[in-house]
Amino acid sequence: MADLEQIRTRVTLTEHEVINTHSTDFPGNYAGYDDTWSLAKFEEKFRVNIVSLEGSELEFDMVGIDAAIANAFRRILLAEVPTMAIEKVFVHNNTSIIQDEVLAHRLGLIPIHADPRLFEYRQEGDDEGTAEDTLEFHLNVKCTRNPQAPKDSTDPDEIYKDHKVYTKHLKWVPLGNQAELYSEGDIKPVHDDILIAKLRPGQEMDLKLHCVKGIGRDHAKFSPVATASYRLLPEIVLTEEVKGERADRLVRCFSPGVMEVTEENGVKKARVVNSRLDTCSREIFRHPDLKDCVKLNKLRDHFIFSVESTGALAPDVLVCEATKVLMGKCRKFLSELDAAADTEQQNLR
Amino acid sequence: MAEQLESLASPLNTIQEKWKLLPAFLKVKGLVKQHIDSFNYFINVEIKKIMKANEKIVSDADPNFYLKYLNIYVGMPDVEEGFNITKPIAPHECRLRDMTYSAPITVDIEYTRGNQRVVRNNLPIGRMPIMLRSSNCVLTGKSPSELAKLKECPLDPGGYFLVKGVEKVILIQEQLSKNRMIVETDRKGLISCSVTSSTHERKTKTYVVQKNAKYFLKHNTFTEDIPIAIAFKAMGVESDQEIVQLIGTDARTMAAVAPSLEECHKAQVFTQKQALRFIGVKVRRSRWGGPKRTRVEEAREVLHSTILAHVPVVKFNFRLKCVYLALMVRRVVQAQAQDRVDDRDYYGNKRLELAGQLLALLFEDLFKKFNAELKKIADQTIPKPRAAQFDIVKHMRQDQITNGLVNAISTGNWTVKRFKMDRAGVTQVLSRLSFISALGMMTRISSQFEKTRKVSGPRSLQPSQWGMLCPSDTPEGEACGLVKNLALMTHITTDSEEQPIQRLAFNLGVEDVHLLSGEELNSQDSYLVMLNGNILGVICDHQHLIRSFRKMRRAGYINEFVSICPNHEHRCVNIASDAGRVCRPYIIVTNGRPMVTNRHIEELTKGYRAFEDFLREGLVEYLDVNEENDCNITLYEADITRDTTHLEIEPFTILGVCAGLIPYPHHNQSPRNTYQCAMGKQAMGAIGYNQHNRIDTLLYLLVFPQRPMVKTKTIELIDYEKLPAGQNATVAVMSYSGYDIEDALILNKSSVDRGFGRCLVYRKQNCTLKRYSNQTFDRVMGPMVDAATRKPIWRHEILDVDGICAPGERVQNKQVLVNKSMPKQTMNPVQTPGQQPEYQDVPITYKGPVDSYVETVLVSSNQEEAFLIKMLLRQTRRPEIGDKFSSRHGQKGVCGLIVNQEDMPFTDQGICPDIIMNPHGFPSRMTVGKLMELLAGKAGVLEGKFHYGTAFGGSKVKDVCEELVQHGFNYQGKDYLTSGITGEPLNAYIYTGPVYYQKLKHMVLDKIHARAKGPRAVLTRQPTEGRSRDGGLRLGEMERDCLIGYGASMLLLERLMISSDQFEVDVCGECGLLGYSGWCQYCKSSRNVSSLKMPYACKLLFQELQSMNIAPRLKLVKYNE
Q1: CB 3.0 to 4.6 Å from B1066: which of A101, B310, B1072, B1075, for a disulfide?
Q2: Which CATH number belongs to the domain containing residue B715 in this structure?
Q3: Domain DNA-directed RNA polymerase RpoA/D/Rpb3-type: where (chain A) (predicted)?
Q4: The CATH number of the domain where B187 resides is what?
Q5: Which residues of B are catalytic?
Q6: pLDDT the model gives residue B5
Q7: What is the pLDDT of residues B200-225, one digit of tens each?
């Protein structure tokens, strides 16, 4: 019975393979289990626990949910939550050694701090853009020699001015009524120290940039996250007591803080402290005498999410946005189902 | 003795970092030192020798007339800007302006003008193309910043020529060494000894062959083989006893030679005179007249200057030549007795010809021709009565030598008449596909062996090539094993003076051959001493000679590249100072201890010491292949025994430049390394710091090249890290979808979005504006303006007001780049002077399915044309399905699918692979090195350092894996991955980590081709062939056979005729010939003419047959009858 429970709820890491990877708790799959889905049961089991939220990084636990749904969140975060990114670059002048296309590509990848929720998608074929769907930036840098530079200096930082083009050189130009809607600090690149290009005296760039709203599936630059992923909560089970020198070795097989050695009556004993910290390096399997003492599991329905925002939106907001996108998809699916049912009804009639 | 033994037994403290000698070596010599050294030797030394050998011109017409060259110089490269004004020129300007980077060759002469003796200095006689970074190049000795000002890349190795704006490399040519005896079996299984003698005058091959147990002298100038005894008699050795003594007096030799002596009696030849007469009859007479000579004189002349030409004969004293010939006979006898012949493929028997030597051959030929021309002019002009005095200087024309050199280098056709040399493909265009391809080309050796012959001997790896040639770097296919590459430390010698060596040898106890008789020469307790293939004398204590000789060399009294080694089988000591021997440096070991110690290396690191100091102090010396055989060389210090004479500097130097890039090559299956050597040359990356200033026909660059995570010592040495060609991709070795079979790769779309594998393709468009003989010239007009809109028409949209496309513009297919027009009349003068000539448009248009951008436009002039317009067009490409990628282990694959990031598997840390590679690539390829690269790369990423994968060394897998564990990763490098599609974990642990991937130049965009209807060939009216002509896709013989077999006759008809070249013809039923418009011209009637369809090619065939008086007649039958 314990075995069955294990198969249902745990993913097990063995020496050469991962077993029980698929969730099998479908209704009727196991005799004696009631796996029918009910809201009450779900509400009782499901919980979200925010572990840490620091700056642009968020770690939270999502427990009691199927892998498919958790994965949906991850996928939506990566590919379907919209952000603003530079899409059109109008090159008036670019005498730097960076080619126009490469420069445009580099500019596109700069994360822009602007709330995409306040903008519309730009219509296809529209090159001009409107205040509702476009943010305009200007990049106008010209490199000159520094007249105050010491004579014998060879350091480019000293002898040239503006020889490095940073994101801070991007200047936001409000379109239409944007100046009233947004303040100066709202719309800007997330980081102002991203190096875009290097110039030498006489070289200059004069560009007009259009930022539009888009999604990560279209291009990675629209992805709101640096990465969003999850891992399953590791669980380490000691199947027998490990004592003495073996305990020391056992503890060393895991990431720091996962296990500890306690001394009981002068006998060293290994104890699991916090299996969450384990990186699953499976070091234990290199010790033939220890590998049978431990079972490495992962909880199938406990997802440790980590979301790293690019900075346009806070990671917690992103997760909420992702939820909204998922809800939108569900709603659409339901309405499609309804529509299909309706047509079927009509056809029957 | 006991003490000595004890000191041997004590553990050696190893020399830490003795590899540091390598960068020191390369700093002195550079990577292409062999080319540059050779060229320097030519323009500074050899050219003067050539001048000395041809220094005097006299005329048959006037005995008082003479011209004598006093000196010859090669100047610094310059360019003529107008009349008599020159300015120094930098190579980059030559590249851009399609000019030749050459310097004037000037001479000092003394000659007679009338009755005066005149001395003139610095007269130009021609121009010499200058090798980049040679002693006369403006780039030598320049600092990187100075080079940058000249728009030159400091990492560029030089060693090539710039001819008409094209970078040309003179490939290293491999040949059998000259002036050396080689014993081999001919086709009939008979043993012969041959010598290819080469002097400044001529090149001939002499054989001693054995026929019916008798020996003969064989040479091309003889109509039949000369019995050897007669040859000896003709050279003045008349007594049979002396002949035998010269050849050898041991019983076996005497028995072997005896039958040959009988030959004299048979021919009744006893004296020198008789012998010469005998030979004289058999000499092939040259066709040109020349001075009339008797048979005897002719025979003597042939023996003097043609047979064994390299053996000096002073005043018809044939003594040395007799000794030499006797030695040849002796070698044959010896080879027969031992049943062992020389190995042609042994690398000690090979010489490498470099740019300097090849140019010297060519220059001497041209110089002789130049002198002959002057003589001819003198002969013709002097007898004529003239107003002005005859001044030969006025007749010295520069263009003959200039054009001769330039044409040879630019076409690669090396024709030297007096050597009967006619080689094609000596030079090649320097490949600038990647930095490595350029470097690889500079170290390439091409063999003279024909590629078509199916023999394995010259192609297979010879043990004597160890350390000299790269064992991995050779092309596949027909040139396999014939085209080779130098190893990292190989040096190729140049000529050095023989006289001092000769003098030294005599001082060391060598007895002069001239003073010895045959008996003494062949004595059992002495060794023969040979210098560059010539007999020098005899030595009793050869070991002493060799020992002291080497000591002198190590002390620096003689050139470090002179080699000496004994051949116990032949009982001789060979000293070599000739050019073209391959050699490499070794650490000298004496008394079981390497001479180089840690102290020396320390001093080297601190910069107190350079590589030359090691040579000068006798710590390190060069060994050539022959001398290597007399040495006992260990790879590692631990293996040093009492007999050890040398220690290898670093084992990885047996590999060349290309193979040096591979991490852990010693763990790969050997052909994989060979494949990578070929592929590294196709990888895109950075090609030089001046890459954006160059205008090349085709240039591939990577937008974001990266240094490899796993590097090798070689990578550091050749500055690959400064000009890399690839990117570190996170690879997951797993199966994904079905689009990864047969080595296909899966790419992550987000990685591609972020710039992985993005590349730039630059293409050049050229346009010259000519001036014609009738004073008309090409012109460029501004854009044509549409009358209605007042805007340029679409085709001229991108043109500037000057009629040339503007930089930064986007060019679409069929748009005009230069709006050039050409006068309709270019030959005859324009009729009316005031009238403007008529022009016709000949625009330069852009062709290509994808738009390009104009990067730069260059307007300049070259030497001939007034105007030269070069345009550089650029495309940026992101990887797409079908683009080719490769790791550094010969594992190429095309991109099979580009997958969104959310569908890619990810690790617990959220790492997503950039590339998914199918694991089936491993078992059959056995590229363990790639697996190790992945591990080392992964550990390096985690640790923040670069691991080494140097051949026969590098980071150990055990250490690397330990590092992985310390960072919480699995020991084996296998990670727990979650599927991006289902969200559930994958069943297997996946091997993940960074691997250096190269993007190869083969991209679908350049190969994509399909057509529905399109152009047809004019002659046959069939669809054209090939992508460039938008050709059709051929339904070939095999496909045709399939359709026939299947019985799809209507499809066959459609494919082969209706869709191709269907043509309606009128055929006369009466005569069966073709008619037209319902009329048969043969029958003069239209009664029986019927119309039918046939392929146009068929109709064409009939007509062509008719033109050859063959009448093809068609028999027509009504199908319903």
Answers
A1: B1075
A2: 2.40.270.10
A3: 57-336
A4: 3.90.1110.10
A5: 743
A6: 47
A7: 777 888 888 888 888 888 888 888 88
